[in-house]
Amino acid sequence: MTPWRVRNLAEDDLDQVVRIWEESRDTPADPAVSLAEMISALRAGVPAVVAVVGDRIVGAAVSSTAQERAWVLRLAIARQWRHHGIGSVLLTALEERLVTQTGVRRIGALLPEGEMGEAAFRNSGYTSRPELRYFEKLLSAGSAEATLLDQLGGAVPEDGLWERIAGMSAEKAVIERRLVLPLENPDVAERYQLVPPRAVVLFGPPGTGKTTFAHGVASRLRWPFIEVFPYRLAADAQGVAEGLRHLFSQVEHLEQAVLFFDEAEEIASERQDPTTSAHRVTNELLKLIPLFRHGERRLLICATNAVRSLDPAFLRPGRFDYLIPIGPPDAEARRAIWIRYIGPDAATGVDLGTLVEASDGFTPADIEYAARTAAQTAFERHLSVGPRASGHLSQRTDDYVRAIAATPSSLTREDIEAFEGDLRTAGRV
Fold first, then answer.
1. In the Cβ-directed half-sphere of 63, how many Cα atoms lie within 13 Å?
2. Residue 85 neighbours by CB distance under 10 Å
3. How many CB atoms lie within 10 A of CB 186?
4. Helices in 160-202 by DSSP H: which ranges?
5. Are strands 199-203 and 322-325 parallel, antiparallel or unpaired?
6. For labelling alongside 221, which of 19, 119, 267, 417 has CA 20 to 30 A away?
């Protein structure tokens, strides 16, 4: 008989391990842990070992940990390699890793009655406890997803956000064609061998509407929107890298979702010193994105003010489908944004051309602030008239001009020049 040996499970072992699990079942009963749960656990880096003969995997054991207890999630051995002591050796090797890596003292396992592995557990010192009864509750897909979304802080944005994005028609058209339409029409895309996007970067100066566009895409698709705040990733984990793994494993259970990272440079900065935590976080995200891309109805959107600060590996095709610039609004876009905040009726009595020219270099957020300031001035003037106030609005061009003059632009000349440089080197639409 060819000798076999035990080693740690590696990333590229997954296909062989899944095949053994599916082929080696002895009973029709469903295992206590599903295949999807197993794969999520493996991608989260749980202790796992395999038995190999040459390059071929003939057995596997996978665990998980919860505080002071560990569980053997699945033990599987290829049929032709049973009764050679592989199961007991796999369990011993798994126990060694659990003790050294996690310090657990109690290890449990759940098997359907009659399933392969009972002898291996008994031979390895595990005790059956017939006085215990296993209870399980299966939530409906909708209930489970709602619970998971609540944990992730996600929700489907209100309807109509996409339609209410004013101005920025060029950027909106690109996002519509490249992202929304293929994701809305996957069957048509498949006919033309077009793979809908899985991950994109929106880049541009601060305040230009990247987050608004991300919300708008989720609203248009009617997909849950999950915004990730990097500083929170480490709150319930040992570090940001582990937090990322946990987050992506949770999102994998959602049927559809838009996962949004603002200020992506915080977790995807250029790798320089391999001893730093930032280097480890960037490495982790580089490994997670290809796995995320397997989902057909999930979209990762990363926004950044400085695409040049991202690690070059993120910008290569294969991880992000498109790098879409979101720049300051041009004159046409500024006019549309002013109309949105003034209102189409009141705008007829305001010199929009003057406002558009005076607000050159403003972001949509700057225009919103100036419009609100002018509206407050008009509102207070209306109330000061008292009973003599007329029924019509009294918005004036000079109210807006003064508000514009009092509103500092969010953008500096350096911001614009840096964005133009990114356009020349990084744009990919």
1. 26
2. 12
3. 14
4. 169-175, 181-184, 186-191
5. parallel
6. 267
Three-state DSSP at 118 gives helix
In 3D, which of 84, 81, 104 has the Cα closest to residue 94?
A: 104
Residue type, 419: F
Q: Residue 18 has which token pair?
A: 């899944």
Task: Calculate mean pLDDT across residues 260-268.
Answer: 88
Tokens for 378?
């008009």
Give the C-alpha separation, 205 to 329, whole Å.
Answer: 11
Neighbours of 389 (CB within 10 A): 12
Cα-Cα-Cα-Cα dihedral of 159, 162, 167, 172, to 10°?
Answer: 180
Q: Which helix (H) or strand (E) holds 266?
A: none
Which residues touch 82 (CB under 8 Å, ≥6 apart)?
116
Containing H/E element for 72?
Answer: strand 69-77
List, in order, residues 6 or more apart from 153 with CB less than 8 Å away: 226, 227
Residues in the chain, overall count: 429
| pTM, two decimal places | 0.67
Q: What is the pLDDT of residues 204-218, one digit of tens each?
A: 998 889 999 999 999
Task: Quote the DSSP letter at residue 130.
Answer: T
Enumerate helices (H) and strands (E) in the chain, giving the number of each: 17, 10
Q: Could you tell me if 63 and 42 are in contact, meaning their C-beta atoms sit under 8 angstroms apart?
A: no
Tell me the per-residue pLDDT of 279-316, one tens digit each, with 9 for 90 and over.
888 888 888 898 888 888 999 999 998 888 888 888 88
Reference 343, options 375, 369, 390, 383; nearest CA is 375
